[in-house]
Hints:
- It comes from Streptomyces niphimycinicus.
- By secondary structure, this protein is an alpha/beta fold.
- Helix content is about 45%, strand content about 15%.
- It has helices spanning about 20-30, 45-55, 75-80, 100, 105-135, 155-175, 205-220, 230-240; strands at about 10-15, 35-40, 60-65, 90, 135-140, 180-185, 225.
- It has a 7-stranded parallel sheet, sandwiched between helices.
- The chain is globular and about 50 Å long.
Amino acid sequence: MKDVVGSPQSVLVLGGTSEIALATVRRLISRRARTVWLAGRPSPALESAARQLRDLGAETLTVPFDALAPEAHEVTLGKVFAEGDIDLVLLAFGVLGVQARDETDPPAAVRVAQTNYTGAVSAALICANAMRRQGHGSLVVLSSAAAGRVRRTDFIHASAKAGLDAFAQGLGDALRRTGVHVMVVRPGFVRTKLTAGLRPAPLATTPQAVAEAIEEGLRRRAAIIWAPAALRLTTAARRLLPRRAP
């Protein structure tokens, strides 16, 4: 299945309960998407997400996937690609962690880093190589605006996202002229269940708004998008400021 730019027929979501990814998939189903794979840890939430997408008319399947088990990624994701071409992969898993706790709990900090970076590198490379073999496809990697200027208040999570951001840009360079497109998405504070109870940052946004930006970025085959776009300027300005504790 060759994808029309910005309008894929088949989608694989890594992080199948991600509110941003699901909002994106709903938009794509309203256009052209007909087959969706939701990869994540088995849970009622994953099954509920699959049912909701089926109700929208997409054939939706779930597949067990754990970012912290990279040794199983090749077999798990290989089975998905063996069923047919995948036009779009949304790499949308990640954890925030609890900065104050994780600073004094190295194993917890390592879990944040392994989930957000190591697990993502493993999954991204496997999917990228599969799409290179099929000769087409887009890989969308959810990074974070926090990767642009790591702060005292979230440096464990943000440093892992910064590593992922740099990796995804390099992967995009490596895949030029292969038919595979890589797009890095840098959302700011997104109002989701994951951020419930946290004080919204300036320019806070919603999963639906990020999904709209992702769809537009796919149409343009953009390499990097910010959501909202104004974050690009504010982050650039913050980089010029001297480092200090907030």
